[in-house]
Amino acid sequence: MTVEEIATRYTVATTQVYNWTSMPGFPEGWTVGMVGDTLVRNADDVDAWLKANFPVHWAKGQDSDNPFGLPKGGDRDLVSLAEICRFEATALGRTEPVPTPTLRGYLSKGKMPQPDRLPGDGQRPEVPDRRWFRKTAYDWVNRPRQRMRRQTKAEEPEAKQNPVAQQSAVPVVSAVQQGGTLTLPGISSKYGVIGRTAGSWTQAAGFPEAAVDPAGYDAAAVDEWVRVNRPRAWATSRRRPVAEAAAPAVEAKTPAKTGPATTRPASDKGRSRSRSPVELEVEGIVQRFGVPRGTAANWITVTEKRDGDTMVRPGFPEPRRRRPRAWDQDEVDAWVEKARPHVWAAFTGSGPVLVNPLPEGDPDDLLDIDDFGKVLGNATRGEPVLRDTMAAYHNRGQIPYADRAPEDGGIPRVFSYHWYRRTVNAFVLSRPGPGNFEPK
Q: What is the average per-residue pLDDT within 129-140?
């Protein structure tokens, strides 16, 4: 086949085919014709390469209504969201199922068909959760896809296929990381996760107990737990260069009640602010508190808000310099401690801290998404979380999936997503890392 014939068969632009030809492993071509001016490639070799690297594009070139080899069955068989996650993974050439929050997001945005059956819909057989007909699910999985990135497994070097060879090529991690103890910020820095995620690990089953003297967690035991339970984070920590691995984690600031609230020497207390204070740029804030960069970028835009003489929201401190922008570390710490106490609690390892107490009520009270946002926001930052933000959290699986959904057959009847108060309160007090929730 020529480049043009490949593009026609797999329904892509010729520029896409030329891009494939530059990738490792793409079949070599040879010239044909009277003057040798036409370059062709073996059709079977091209098909095999696409199947291994771009299964979605490969499927377009197959004369089959089930190119991915999905399990056979009747068109009206009922399948669950978890099964569709596996079907979608097969179409994408992945071994692990697609995360359920991803498909929930597709549902919310109308990118995936709504379920054919719901609990309590009066049809038979009764279903315990949302279900789709097999034909509905397969039609969606086999849908035309406009964009498709190359699969990771095709990009990985041969060393990844050979764990022994890979380990021998990885620089030795410093003794600082392998021995001694690790604090929560140290765990966050070593394994490249945010502070809340590191905090949720410490609550998981089998995680090493915290030591009292010296304070922290045994580094070797933590590393073994992460290797077994969080292999991706563990592999990331092994691939870091020696210089980065050996660099000390950003030192957590000691809470005011247990020690001085500054990283400057005592002799510097009376000096002018222009005499070498510790400064943080945006990336420094991200690394210090283990928050996403977008969160840090939002913090620096927060302005002061007052209700009469009452301070509702403190403004983020003014930067010490503009190009590039940098802030005094002590001032940033003071703002986070006051305005984002839950982040401060994760940073210092002092446990959940609430700006306002949780409202009283029956644990079985039903709260809608606006109520959820009010409870969460008032408890963690002193003002409600916007409805659109809460909807985004729900779509991404960053808050628990709703206990009640419209037309779910429960009593009382609800017309929007609702949560029991006990679910909301448990989430506010635990604050696990993002994306930890599965559908009901």
A: 88
* C-alpha dihedral, 402 to 403 to 406 to 412, nearest 10°: -150
pLDDT > 90? residue 187: no
213 — pLDDT class (breaks 50, 70, 90) = low
Largest CA-CA distance found in the chain, in angstroms, rounded? 89
Q: Torsion over CA of 74, 79, 85 and 87, rounded to 10 degrees?
A: -10
For the cut 50, the answer to whether the pLDDT of residue 130 exceeds it is yes
* Cβ–Cβ < 8 Å for 296, 280: no
State the pLDDT at residue 255.
44
What is the C-alpha separation between 130 and 103, in angstroms, rounded? 13
Q: How many helices (H) and strands (E) does the chain have?
A: 23, 14
Tell which residue, 339, 248, 268, has the closest CA to residue 301. 339
Our measurement of the distance from residue 40's CA atom to the centroid of its chain's CA atoms, rounded to an integer in Å, reads: 43
Across the strands, what pairs with 38?
A: 32
Within 11-65, residue ranges assigned H as helices are 14-21, 43-53, 55-60
**What is the sign of the dihedral through the CA atoms of 257, 259, 264 and 266?**
positive
Tokens of residue 1, six digits: 């086949």
CA atoms within 13 A on the CB side of 344: 20
Structure tokens at 160: 């990844």
Q: Which two tokens stand for residue 126?
A: 């009764």
Cβ 145 vs Cβ 56: under 8 Å: yes
The structure tokens listed for 231 are 């292999």
* Band of residue 20 on the pLDDT scale cut at 50, 70, 90: confident
Beta strands in 216-259 (DSSP E): 216-218
* CA gap 73, 438 in Å, rounded: 26
Cα 393 from Cα 386, distance rounded (Å): 11
Compute how many other C-beta atoms are within 10 angstroms of the C-beta atom of residue 124: 6
Q: Are 342 and 431 in contact (CB under 8 A)?
A: yes
- Cα 205 to Cα 212: distance, rounded to the nearest angstrom: 20
Packed helices 195-202 and 341-348: angle between N→C axes, nearest 10 degrees: 60
> Helix or strand or coil: residue 262?
coil
- How many residues does the structure list for the chain? 440
- The model's pLDDT over 136-185, given as tens digits with 9 standing for 90+, comes to 988 888 776 654 444 444 444 443 444 433 433 333 333 333 447 788 77
Q: Tokens representing 176?
A: 């600082």
Q: What is the 3-state secondary structure (H, E, C) of 341-397?
A: HHHHHHHHCCCCCCCCCCCCCCCCCEEEHHHHHHHHHHHHCCCCCCHHHHHHHHHCC
Residue 277 CB partners (closer than 8 Å, separation 6+): 264, 320, 328, 329, 330
